[in-house]
Amino acid sequence: MIIGNIKIKGHAALAPMAGVTDNAFRELCMQFGAGFCISEMISAKAISFNNQKTIALMNIYNTERPCAIQLFGSEPEILAEAARFSLQFNPLFIDINMGCPAPKVFNNGCGSALMKTPYLCGKIVHAVSKAVNIPVTVKIRSGVDEANKNAVEVAAVCEENGAKAVTVHGRTREQYYSGQADARIIKDVKRALTIPVIANGDIVTPEDGVRMYEQTGCDYIMIGRGSLGNPWVFEQINSYFENGSYNSDIPLKQRLDVMKRHAFLVVEKKGENLGMREFRKHAAYYLKGFKNAAKLRNHAFSLSTLDDLDKMISLAENSQ
Ligand SMILES: Cc1cc2nc3c(=O)[nH]c(=O)nc-3n(C[C@H](O)[C@H](O)[C@H](O)COP(=O)(O)O)c2cc1C
Question: Is the pLDDT of residue 320 over 90?
């Protein structure tokens, strides 16, 4: 896939996930062969207020490149200014969030609420594209609700205004994360556009990935929740595409080793105190499918130090 003039390798990208795809997780997924990754969504307004915590979210280490920055907001000029500001972090491209369903985002007219006004989506893409010399992309849903599935219209307006790729999550805002992602609407978007279309929603296995490519004709796929506690999904997908087979059976020891490597990356970036608290949710995902998972998860949710993690790993090894 080529976004603007940037050639993207591999077959699947890591989706942006607030509170999840921090520097550590992005680095880990890139090590496992994600084609590119995207920051957590970042408030353009908070950037305009010089909020240091928000600005820190823009940092990209070389070990996680190629990495894009995702912005959310509703005012074209504020988004354009935030995009300009973000250039100092050297992102691969700027992605505009037009899909977030969360009330505090939606009720402010941001995220998926933008899909209610395609004209504004166009103005935003136009303003941001003019502000930066790197590609601008958008990430949308199928629509706001069942009666308003206007992804094709929004995507087309974005393309007309300079978007260089569109990611479509095949669910409405109303669906949040329930029900099934609709591949049909992604196919419709792909047919209507000339820029690359990235398909997203419910891809967990390499077979899901192939199905998504086949059903939609998309140019690339993006994986969110399927990577949680499962970063090797990218390696599996690459292997499936390149060799027709993949290793589906990740040995227990490898799962625990990767979990530990992930924890080290988090601690390296955030310190042990904050890092291990933030790592708790990731640890719980790695333990999925383990014998004694409920008990292990209780341990995961009380992790405070790397020592605690070692104890939990011993317990996991001994209880299988
Ligand atoms: C915890 C969580 C946080 C998310 N945060 C973002 C975000 O910051 N920006 C965004 O565009 N999408 C966000 N999403 C949506 C995902 O990028 C993706 O579109 C959605 O989860 C569907 O893909 P999946 O089925 O592969 O998870 C988030 C999803 C989850 C579960």
Answer: no
The response to whether residue 18 sits with its C-beta less than 6 Å from ligand 1 reads yes
In single-letter form, the type of residue at position 266 comes to V
CA distance 77 to 143: 24
For 96-116, write each residue's pLDDT tens digit.
999 999 999 999 999 999 999
- Residue where a domain terminates, one of 243, 276, 301: 243
* Helix pair 252-270, 23-31: axis angle to 10 deg: 140
Q: How far is CA 184 from CA 91, 146, 159, 181, 199, in A?
A: 31, 14, 20, 9, 11
Indicate if the alpha-carbon torsion angle 233, 29, 194, 75 is positive or negative.
positive
Q: How many angstroms from the chain centroid is the CA of residue 209?
A: 15
Cβ distance 263 to 306 under 8 Å?
Answer: yes
Average pLDDT over residues 220-224: 98
Using the 3D structure, point to which of 243, 278, 309 is the last residue of a domain.
Answer: 243
CATH code at position 123: 3.20.20.70
Helix (H, G, I), strand (E, B), or coil: what is residue 249?
A: coil
Q: Is the pLDDT of residue 9 over 90?
A: yes
* CA-closest residue to ligand 1 atom 31: 225
Residues 145, 209, single domain; the answer is: yes
Instruction: Kindly state whether residues 79 and 157 are assigned to the same domain.
Output: yes
Verify whether ligand 1 is closer than 6 Å to residue 226 (CB atom).
yes
Closest by CA to 27, choosing from 265, 234, 233, 238, is: 265
Q: Are strands 2-3 and 6-7 parallel, antiparallel or unpaired?
A: antiparallel
Told to judge if 218 belongs to the known catalytic residues of this protein, a careful annotator would answer no
Residue 273: domain span:
252-318
